[in-house]
Structures are given as C-alpha cells and as structure tokens.
Amino acid sequence: MKVLFNAGEIARKVKELGDEITAAYEGCNLYIIGILKGGFIFMSDLVRQVRMPVRIGFVRLSSYGNSDSPQGNVRILDDVEDAVQGRHVLIVDDIMDTGQSLLAFKKHLESKGPISVKICTMINKTQRRIAPMEPDFYGFQVSEGFIVGYGLDYAEDYRALPEICIIEPGNGEGNA
Ligand code: IMP
Ligand code: MG
C-alpha cells in the first residue's frame, strides 16, 4: 500500500474546495448531502471549510447485482428527510468511479424539485467512468487503482486512515 496524499495535503485541498464552494454558492440556500459510509470524513472536514450557513443530510446508497446497465442497480437506503425543493443541493462523496451511483442519486434528487444538484467528491477516478458525468468539484484526480483511507474502504477496512492510499495491484491485498 502506498500513500498518495498525506493528511496535510488533504487538509490543504479540502480548504481550497471549501473556498471554491463558498464562492460558488454565495447567497444561496445550500443543502449538503453526504453519502455514507465513504463520504463521512470528507463531509465532516468539508462542511467546516464552507463559510456560509448550510443544512446537512446523509443518505446511504447500495449497489447490488452485477448488472452492467448504468443506474439500474443502485438502491437508496435512507432518503433525505429535509425538503430539497427550492434549495441548491450539493452531494458529497468519497469517490466517483463509474459514476453510476452518483448519477442515480442525482436523478432521484432532481425529481424532488431542487434549484440545482451538484456533486463534490474527494477523488475523481476517471478510467472506469461509464455514466455521462463528472464531479462539479473534486479534490484529487487519479486515473485508476484501488484507493483506501480518508473514508474509503477495502472490504470495510482502512476507512479511518488519515491518508489517502493506493492498494498496489499484485501484492495480494486486492487489485479492483
Ligand atoms: P461508482 O462506480 O462511481 O458508482 O462508485 C461506487 C462506489 O464504489 C463508490 O462510492 C465507492 O464506495 C466504491 N469505490 C469505487 N472505487 C473505489 C476505490 O478505489 N476505493 C474504494 N471504494 C471505491
Ligand atoms: Mg461510497
């Protein structure tokens, strides 16, 4: 396992993102929705760098089956309780990979009448993208490899690592 970004680099990047989001949503009624579990650490750091009053919510998404069809296999396990109608919504997650889960959740929210729905992920992993979408804000871009730490897991391990690491293919720890 190799460290890609250490805690200091992550903190600087999150501050930058907080500034970017603060500027983008000036004067707006912003509702930030974090995706559990992977987004929990990034979400808690990011909301403290957004310098405006915000509402906070969390949902859990679950992918199931092996379907290749975009969006068809994403379930929303806990839905948002607060109304998104008439609000700007920012979805916060750990990583965008194929993009299928975030596309499905974005469409779900869009059906509830928000003013806008945008996406912020800590990692933008580009090579396996299937859904026709990009994060509107992201911290770091990587092309491929399996990333852990800072909320990201490998079979539920490593979420609490303060660094963002890559599990190197071929060392027996997995190479998804
Ligand atoms: P999607 O393929 O963009 O829909 O991502 C679905 C989910 O797969 C993400 O929210 C993560 O939970 C997980 N995932 C994708 N790539 C990685 C990775 O490199 N490390 C850990 N989890 C990942
Ligand atoms: Mg996730």
Shape: globular
Mean pLDDT: 91
Question: How would you sum up the major sheet?
Answer: 6 strands, mixed
Category by helix and strand content: alpha/beta
Through-space gap between termini: 13 Å
What is the name of the CATH class? Alpha Beta
Percentage of residues in strands: 25-35%
Count of helix runs: 3
**Approximately how much helix is present in the residues?**
10-25%
Roughly how many Å is the radius of gyration?
Answer: 16 Å
The structural domain count equals 1
What is CATH's topology name? Rossmann fold
Low-confidence parts: 172-176
Q: Which small molecules are bound?
A: inosinic acid, magnesium ion
Strand elements, count: 9
CATH architectural name: 3-Layer(aba) Sandwich
Structure description:
The protein is an alpha/beta fold and 176 residues long. It contains 3 helices and 9 strands. It has helices at residues 7-24, 40-47, 100-110, and strands at residues 2-5, 30-36, 54-63, 74-78, 88-96, 116-125, 137-142, 146-148, 164-167. The strands form 2 sheets. Strands 4-3-2-5-6-7 form a 6-stranded mixed β-sheet, sandwiched between helices. Strands 1-9-8 form a 3-stranded antiparallel β-sheet. The longest helix is centred in the first third of the chain and has 18 residues, at 7-24. It is globular. Magnesium ion binds next to β5.
